[in-house]
Amino acid sequence: MSQVEFFTEFNRLTTLLNSFAYNLTKNSEDAKDLYQETAFRAMTNRDKFRPGTNLKAWLFTIMKNIFINNYRKKMKANTIMDNTDNLYYLNSGSNSIDNAADSNILIKELTGMIDLLDDSTRIPFMMHYQGFKYQEIADHLDLPLGTVKSRIFFARKDLKAQIARQYGKLRVRS
């Protein structure tokens, strides 16, 4: 496509490009800027357009990509980065400080609940928890595979019941 043909086609699509720019920006000044940027990029990259393809779609894609890139730049510019020392917890939503006390207490309580399980279910459960596969547990304990699976199932069921009694109607995932 010659330079003259390209400019003629571009001029024919000017009204559509301006309308599309306004639909994207919802602001006439921003739409004019977007159209100008699109025209500039289309003219400078005219050699990248393949003749026989859809010029309108190529121009609309350029415009849409410019709009998206500008939008992302605006969003980044609106993000406030606070590099000051956090001496007064300005960025925190609360004044609490996280520590491991809650989780340590919970782990101790869960360990106690596991210790209350019968050995026939506790041992396969703990082996499974430690990463042993069902077959490895069955071989180690000299039990059938189905027995190992059912004992682990019953250990989980007993632990869920203990947790429900201890903590009330908390939701326990399966």
Automatic annotation (TrEMBL):
Keyword Transcription recorded: yes
Keyword tags: Sigma factor, Transcription, Transcription regulation
UniProt domain RNA polymerase sigma factor 70 region 4 type: residue ranges: 109-159
Domain spans labelled RNA polymerase sigma-70 region: 12-75
Cited CDD domains: Sigma70_r4 (cd06171)
Pfam family, one: Sigma70_r4_2
GO molecular function: DNA binding; sigma factor activity
Matches recorded under InterPro entries: RNA_pol_sigma-70-like, RNA_pol_sigma-70_dom, RNA_pol_sigma70_r2, RNA_pol_sigma70_r4_t2, RNA_pol_sigma_r2, RNA_pol_sigma_r3/r4-like, WH-like_DNA-bd_sf
UniProt GO BP: DNA-templated transcription initiation
Record-stated family: Belongs to the sigma-70 factor family. ECF subfamily.
Family matches, as NCBIfam families: sigma70-ECF
Protein name according to UniProt: RNA polymerase sigma-70 factor, ECF subfamily
Source organism of the structure: Neolewinella agarilytica
